[in-house]
Structures
1.
Amino acid sequence: MKKTIKDYNLYDKKVIIRCDFNVPMENNIILDDNRIVASLDTIEYAINNGAKVILMSHLGRIKEASDLINNTLEPVAKRLEELLHRKVVFIGETRGKKLEKAIKKMRAGSVVLIQNTRYEDLDGKKESNNDLQLASYWASLGDIYINDAFGTSHRNHASNVGIASILPNGVGFLIEKEVNILGRAINNPKRPFTVILGGAKVNDKIGVIENLVKIADYILIGGGMAYTFLVAKGLNVGKSLVDKENIDFCKKILDNYSSKIILPVDNIVANEISNSSLVRVATSDNIKDLDIALDIGPKTVELFNQYLIKSKTVIWNGPVGFSEIKNFSKGTKALCETLSKLDAITIIGGGDTASSVINLGFKDKFTHISTGGGATLELLEGKNLPGINVISDI
Ligand code: AMP
């Protein structure tokens, strides 16, 4: 078991908390503050226990100087002030006198947010390459390091693995919750255990399929990735998305686990990806050359529901249709409705699946919506996450 924030006396200590404030933003306006809200339990615990709270996070990617302005964490500081009902001192730099002075002035319960850690990537990718000198400098600013950035825990960066290798450390409540819920679901699932996989490409989910096909009772496959499986079965999928390099992989999975893999029996097809395109339902053995299959059809929803209704654990990663467009979001919505009524543990993998179900109005209808995209996938692949691995065991 990993040490947590609760294993430390925080009073008057400078506690660096690595959060995941990597929220979608447009022109410095936060479009969705879920990740900020998800970090509050740990931050409030530190404040209430008299820590001097030093917050760090990355935001977006910094490749050139023009990326800086659009990826400042200043709007996050403002939103945090509203959510915490207290002053959050924002330092627009990742190192230097101003930052050191602000930390020196801190009192028990005060909060400082440091600028986007990836500003350091502009000069030799110091954050993303886990530069030792940078990690040592950041570690010198604090007494204790708490990693609560689940969404970054699959990365080996200076602001997670680097600092944690130097300071006494622990995980925060968000990482604890993510690992407990996802870990329990795959290591000791209540059965039947069903996985729904969708999204665009088979390639991104090979590791997940390989790991979960051994553990799960059923894998329901929808979304763009379903059509590579249908091709592997010898069916015509017209102009639907096909991941040519992975047809053989799909064949192998179908050969070895045919009773576990459930594929669409019908589909919503169109000639173009647009809300104004004419749509029709095509059974999977009757997709025409010009058709693009963009959602699962009503018979498939019924079929998937038969498996879901009897499930006790469901993990879902990847929308089962092109759900950003209303015409092709019905399948994803129908499955949301089914899951929201289940007496089961229901877990939504992060990234696109989380945005889809939230945008469709199902934010509070599941046991858990993960805050990680890549990190969740790697956990589902059965991999160890470096940002969590580095934390000391009790
Ligand atoms: P992923 O990041 O792999 O989970 O993929 C999510 C993306 O897959 C979303 O942008 C969906 O629009 C897209 N997607 C889902 N179903 C389809 C489909 N049938 N054809 C093309 N793209 C799809």
2.
Amino acid sequence: MKVGILGGTFDPVHNGHIAIAKKAKEQYGLDLVFLMPARIPPHKADVATADVHRLAMLTLALSTEPSLDINLMEFERDGRSYTSDTLTILMKDHPDSELYYIMGEDSLRDFPKWHEPATIASLAKILVAPREKNTQAFKDLIALRSEEFGQVFYPLDLPYNPVSSTGLRECLENGTPSTELPARVNDYCRRFGIYTKKPTVLRKETVALFEALSERLKEKLHIYRFWHVTGVAYTAANLLAERYEAMHRKPCEDGCYDEVQQAFIAGILHDCAKCMSIPELVTYAKENNVPHEEEQEKIGDVLHAPVGRFMAEHEYGITDLVILDAIGKHCLGDVEMNDVDLAVFDADYFEPYRDHRPLEITLSELRDIALKDITVGAYEVTKASILFLKTIGAAICTQSYRVLEALKKRLKEKNTASAEENETISKENESTMSEYTSKDLAKTAYAALDNKKAFDIRVIEIDKVSTIADYFVIADGNNASQVEAMVDEVQMMLYKTYGIEPKRVEGAKNSGWILMDYGDIVVHVFSSQDRLFYDLERVWRDGSTLDTSDWGENPAEKKD
Ligand code: ATP
């Protein structure tokens, strides 16, 4: 892996940063390029802009740059963010990677004054972008440093671009527009008054309440949790402001939207119950009669949402039901979600401090989708969290499936109502929303089992003899790992093709019989021994076995 790192303060991030990161990737064939914000830049001790904003601006800028990533390792490390420490850790953790450190000409000029420059030059190849007009001076500097450090420093073939964060801060302070600032970053700065201290989307009283709540929460929550709730507040408020401005929705007389205030306050409070352990949450819920589902209590952690709603009302004095409901719904979502609920739900998943998870969809993609439409965002977030929980083998609340279905229905209705909005839904979603019959599901399950070389796949039509389902799909595998592979393949193919999840799965991983109930079809995967033992075909002999000889390469062998 060739990994590029562009370290910086990003106060704010600008098109110059993005251009040099992309050029490095292209010119030197890098597999990955990270923009790595320094929490405490060694050479700029007086960064006045709050960390949450530098990070939020970076995530917004990269929401439209799928080839670039963010790495938070310097943000999460205490003390000054020394590059030599960062590269040493990266090399230790990824000894097979080749590191490329990207910097501008001004940084190269100061390089000998950096902390342990020789270590940096020995751990990474250094790629340098011009930052001054004089091309000869640039070449000379590269040659000089190469000689001094006994390593080659590599130039980036880019024209000199005079943009700087310092210049942009001045523009923003004076209200002068600049094309060097990504549009979403520009909007964010204006909305929250990042460099002017005059927010346009938040009322004074909202800011005052937010600050008072922050003071209290800071005392109660772990520092990372506190960063997260701050990130959710700004992200949720920004998502809603973006939505309403794009819709040209008329604001209140003071130019603000009520929902933006509500999302902001719900965001900061949404995890207020995370100061408790799971047993404490269970006790608190019981002692205070906090309404919740039995399933939430079983899974434990998800209880923090209803408990948080209760605490927000009784301990933090919130009376606005919109805020309280958004807190109560933030964890699992709900079949009924208003704009504030959706914004907090979405923001919780991809606020800027969220670490990248091994998802099929990146956080940048999720941000981009949600900034275009918060409902599509919620749908993708729900799908991503179900998949993630599955990947790590965690329990999944059935509420998540209900929410997924409800969002899918809502998007489908919206699609019919507006062909234009249809475009915002990814092609994959469109296919998941297409109509299908129970036979289509049975065929896909059959194909999935066939892919994993299942034995004796049979499809029994039972709709005439039972109301349980239309079809049973039955197959067996040689051993536990084949059975597991068959189960995974069925779930993956039905999910990919139709966007559906089983309503219920029974049978433990290593058991000889796993049942996946999809409503219209039920798929039974057995170990060969258990299939003989249970002999479902005999139990369901009143149903008729379908002729599947043309469904796949492994036609069902009929048993006597
Ligand atoms: P400031 O004006 O506050 O010094 P900056 O624009 O240099 O900020 P940083 O976040 O400090 O932004 O920069 C990160 C890295 O990107 C540095 O190595 C810097 O030299 C490089 N860089 C920033 N802007 C440019 C640019 N326009 N051309 C080439 N390199 C740049």
